[in-house]
Amino acid sequence: MTTIAGICWCAELGQRARVVNAAIRLAMQLFVVSCFWRGFYQASGGTQSMAATQTVSYAVLAVLVTQTGGIDRMFSRDSMVQHLQRGTILYWLVRPIPPRRYYALRAIGDRAYGLAWGTIGYIACRYTGVIAAPVSASTAVIAFGSFALGCVTLYYLNQILDLICFWTMMNTNALNIYQFVMSLMSGAIAPLWLFPKWFREVNELLPFQNVLNTPLSVYVGRTSASAAVPLIGVQLLWIVILMTLTRLMWRRAESSTAIEGG
């Protein structure tokens, strides 16, 4: 795992222009999101209200959590769909390490890189007061645990999208739809408590809010520690469901792989 993650980090950090671009892009995103939500509540005369503090902290944290996705595999021509199109996916299947485990180790390296950026951004935002502190130490622990489960949920959702390529050879359209749905229903665009009740009720039947809305709502105090317990149970349930589904998809993919080119 150390080798795989190290290669990913070296490849990314070796391109200084990409590192500088990532830093500038993250700083601008945080600035714009913070200004937007502060301006929104200022216009309504409630900049000092609890709702304003929670929403601004939530929105800025959402940017940081989104940043933890890690390395852009499409840019480095190392995404699964690109390997399938070139035929190099064959090397995944003949390695001593199972492809499912290799995929997991690679994802851990990506996530670690993204977490490094997210941590730097979080420290900077806490220092400048853009993000409020958690309500209590216990709330912070619960929020962090829920965030970890959200990362696992996102890992399996992304994996399902990648595995679709074994049967379609291209997932561009699915990726576009998935990114929009994920941003909307996870709460990345706006906190879910601002949406209509019917939307929230439908969303509760899906796994997307477990990725971002659940942990961030706990952190900002919108969801109490006691109310977070059943939500964490829902996160665990979805992880089991998605893990089972991805294992079945891997088995089918390995037994019936057609490769373009290569």
Number of strands: 0
Give the termini separation.
27 Å
Low-confidence stretches: none
Q: How confident is the prediction overall: mean pLDDT?
A: 84
User: Number of helical segments?
Assistant: 12
Q: Considering DSSP H and I runs of 4 or more, what fraction of the residues is helical?
A: over 70%
Order of helices and strands: HHHHHHHHHHHH
Task: Report on the architecture of this protein.
The protein has 12 helices and no strands. With about 260 residues, the chain is mainly α. It is about 75% helix and about 0% strand.
List the helices and strands and how they pair.
Blueprint: H1 2-13, H2 16-43, H3 50-67, H4 80-86, H5 89-94, H6 99-128, H7 137-163, H8 165-168, H9 172-186, H10 197-203, H11 213-219, H12 225-255
Helix pairs in contact: 1-6, 2-3, 3-6, 3-11, 7-11, 7-12
Keywords, separated by commas or semicolons:
mainly alpha, 12 helices, 0% strand
Nutshell version of this structure?
The protein contains 12 helices and no strands. It has helices at 2-13, 16-43, 50-67, 80-86, 89-94, 99-128, 137-163, 165-168, 172-186, 197-203, 213-219, 225-255.
